[in-house]
């Protein structure tokens, strides 16, 4: 967990200046920021407004996935719409039933927006704003429709004028009088006949939608400003078309579920650059993700690395063949380790080679059987998982 928190810290420190958290803390809205490049697509920042709305401390939220706040009555179709928007890297506004820390459900408007790198068009983060939807009550003792009225929070008397103000559809004066009588009758019967309309979907008002859009703009404004100070600019809209080398957010998330040490490289770009590096690879080598992406894997080589082994790797890649070698590599601190390396081509849904996966296992020259799977089996399981993720992603992108 400690290494995960370090990666989360790095998610912000690399992209924005050190004052970005203080600036975000000053915003009163409820929002979170997530990083799709980290395993599990975790929350890397939660606002004070979010903590107040959900009842969690920030330390309880950072590092967790947003599904933590869903519950038994959260609409699965809505969740799938969110996942689809993440896959397509597009904004989304949707009504969602979420749960506070104490287990109480409430309806909110969830407004999500991707944050793009201005340099290469990659999705860096997702901002998610939560705006509570005005509570709706259903009235069990009258003929009023379940979503007909907004009950005043203070429980005060609702006049005909208030009814006109709360209802979304236009009603005649006779209907207003009838509604007023129903309200008075229900008030006389007591509050037991009224209950929160949790089971029926709530739709956000235009005011609530405008409020969420304003909150998104405020967050993007802060992120944009503090990215300018580091020179690694971000923006709320894709400023350039992403290069062929860049993998989408959905593939990022799928690969993040694979816990072994591996990288994904693109053979169609100059110098065969790394386009994805797993958390386990970063932990093994000591490098940050920003220090790895875009580089050829030869940076792991050093003074005593065998050139013949490096040539063997190059030849296998040129002929689109898998290979397994034992090679001396070096960490960031220049300590060496024997790397039991397996490289394999990864084909997309059309059968063409899209990437090469390189699986790294430390060769500690001990009895592998005592540690469970052999290194060969671990490597093959990673390759299989990566192939499934890539093919699934390419099928979705062409559908």
How many alpha or pi helices?
13
**Helical proportion, percent range:** 25-40%
Span between termini: 37 Å
Instruction: Supply the CATH class of the largest domain.
Output: Alpha Beta
Describe this structure in words.
The chain has 399 residues and is an alpha+beta fold. The chain folds into 3 domains: 168 residues, Beta-Lactamase (2-Layer Sandwich), CATH 3.30.450.20; 60 residues, no CATH class; 150 residues, 2-Layer Sandwich (Beta-Lactamase), CATH 3.30.450. The chain has 13 helices and 13 strands. Strand 12 and strand 13 form a beta hairpin. The longest helix is centred in the C-terminal third of the chain and has 24 residues. About 17% of the residues have low confidence.
Give short descriptive properties of this protein.
alpha+beta; 3 domains; six-stranded antiparallel sheet; single chain; Beta-Lactamase; 399 residues
Brief write-up:
The protein has 399 residues and is α+β, with helices and mostly antiparallel strands. Helices cover 36% and strands 21% of the residues.
């Amino acid at each position: 967990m400690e290494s995960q928190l370090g990666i989360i810290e790095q998610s912000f420190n690399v992209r924005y200046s050190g004052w970005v958290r203080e600036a975000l803390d000053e915003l009163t809205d409820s929002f979170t920021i997530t990083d799709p490049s980290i395993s599990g697509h975790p929350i890397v920042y939660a606002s004070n407004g979010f903590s107040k709305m959900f009842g969690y401390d920030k330390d309880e939220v950072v590092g967790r996935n947003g599904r933590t706040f869903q519950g038994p009555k959260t609409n699965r179709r809505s969740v799938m719409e969110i996942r689809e928007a993440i896959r397509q890297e597009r904004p989304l506004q949707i009504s969602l039933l979420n749960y506070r820390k104490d287990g109480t459900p409430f309806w909110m408007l969830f407004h999500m927006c991707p944050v793009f790198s201005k340099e290469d068009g990659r999705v860096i983060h997702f901002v998610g704003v939560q705006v509570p939807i005005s509570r709706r009550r259903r009235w069990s003792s009258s003929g009023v429709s379940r979503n007909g009225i907004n009950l005043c929070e203070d429980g005060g008397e609702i006049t005909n004028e208030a009814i006109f103000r709360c209802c979304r559809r236009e009603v005649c004066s006779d209907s207003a009088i009838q509604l007023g009588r129903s309200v008075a009758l229900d008030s006389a019967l007591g509050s037991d006949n009224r209950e929160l309309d949790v089971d029926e979907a709530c739709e956000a008002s235009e005011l609530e939608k405008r409020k969420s859009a304003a909150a998104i703009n405020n967050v993007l404004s802060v992120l944009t400003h503090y990215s300018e100070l580091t020179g690694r600019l971000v923006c709320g809209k894709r400023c350039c078309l992403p290069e062929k080398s860049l993998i989408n957010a959905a593939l990022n998330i799928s690969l993040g579920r694979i816990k072994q040490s591996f990288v994904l490289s693109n053979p169609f770009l100059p110098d065969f650059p790394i386009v994805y590096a797993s958390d386990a690879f970063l932990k093994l080598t000591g490098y940050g993700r920003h220090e790895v992406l875009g580089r050829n894997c030869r940076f792991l080589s050093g003074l005593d690395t065998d050139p013949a082994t490096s040539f063997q790797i190059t030849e296998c890649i040129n002929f689109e063949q898998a290979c397994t070698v034992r090679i001396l590599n070096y960490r960031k601190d220049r300590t060496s380790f024997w790397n039991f390396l397996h490289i394999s081509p990864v084909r997309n849904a059309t059968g063409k080679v899209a990437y090469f996966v390189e699986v790294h296992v430390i060769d500690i020259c001990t009895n592998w059987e005592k540690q469970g799977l052999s290194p060969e089996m671990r490597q093959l399981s990673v390759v299989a998982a990566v192939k499934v993720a890539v093919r699934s992603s390419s099928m979705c992108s062409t559908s």
